[in-house]
Amino acid sequence: MEYVVITFLCLGILLYFLLGGADFGAGIIELFTSAKNRGKTRKTMYQAIGPVWEANHMWLIIAIVILFVGFPHIYTTMSVYLHIPLLIMLIGIIARGTAFVFRHYDAVHDNMQEVYNKIFVYSSFITPLFLGIIAGSVISGHIDTQATDFVSAYIYSWLNWFSVSVGLFTVALCGFLAAIYLIGETKDEHDKKRFIKKAEFMNIAAVLFGAMVFIASFKENVPLADWVFKNPIGLSAVILASLSLILLWYLLLKGKTKILRVLAGFQVTMILLAISYAHFPNFIRLKGGDTISLFSAVGPEKTIYSLGLALLLGSVLILPFLGYLFYKFQQKEEE
């Protein structure tokens, strides 16, 4: 049952990045949109994420619950040594959701709408930034469980060039996903061209920040290059991600937008696979070279069995209805 729980954990993280990340990316796209086009972008974004954006946080909740119940040592280590970026990320999620609701459904339209807009776009940037910082921190080797002072234990564990570079790379990927998804949400040619330009901009940003991640990993002794290029699975994933990106832009130039979302999602999945496969099942790298593995940190057998059973039953009950929600929403768009 361990493998069932670990599979759900990995799927939860992946789906949160692909779906929740695209939602964050919509706010990032709005942030980098001119004032005259912001209204159109906002309207398209409402159509794209309005009815389903809350469901995307389900994947984050599932991942957190799995870590809390099934891997308490990993959960404790992250929540203690990374409590500052975790708190900022959670505040960003709350602020973004609140601003999204009030700027759209507030009964009174006044100057506060501009405040809601700013909260929404800036929290859309900050939240994936710190999500990426957390992801970078758990593999950076900067978490020092033997630290005796506050700064070493709770600041340097995440405030380093590698983690920040991963955070910026995450922001660029979220913006890229959103731009690609939004291309298929509009029939206006002018808007499509705008979103294509945003996708190009975010693609370039992702390449630059990706290069920054590798430079920072070299400077801070994170064996990222070995994980990616000296492992056949990692190398294959990188090649497939590159080929899917080339195909994506080819189809985009041909005006074929239906499969773009699948290709963008596939590309990001391959990037995550390339980074994570080589050091699996190690979940956290600690300062000094020690690691915390999913198998070594697993909870009691009865707990894992109950958790795995609950996840299996829950997926049977929830996933079909979630799929139906997306299906009905897509039908509404086509009408």
TrEMBL record:
The keyword Kinase does not apply. It comes from the Bacteria. The chain crosses the membrane at residues 6-32, 53-74, 80-99, 119-139, 159-181, 201-218, 233-252, 259-280, 304-327. It is found in: Cell membrane. Keywords: Cell membrane, Membrane, Transmembrane, Transmembrane helix. Coiled coil: none annotated. Its main location: membrane. It holds the Pfam family Cyt_bd_oxida_II. It is a multi-pass membrane protein. Belongs to the cytochrome ubiquinol oxidase subunit 2 family. This is Cytochrome d ubiquinol oxidase subunit II. It comes from Pedobacter punctiformis.
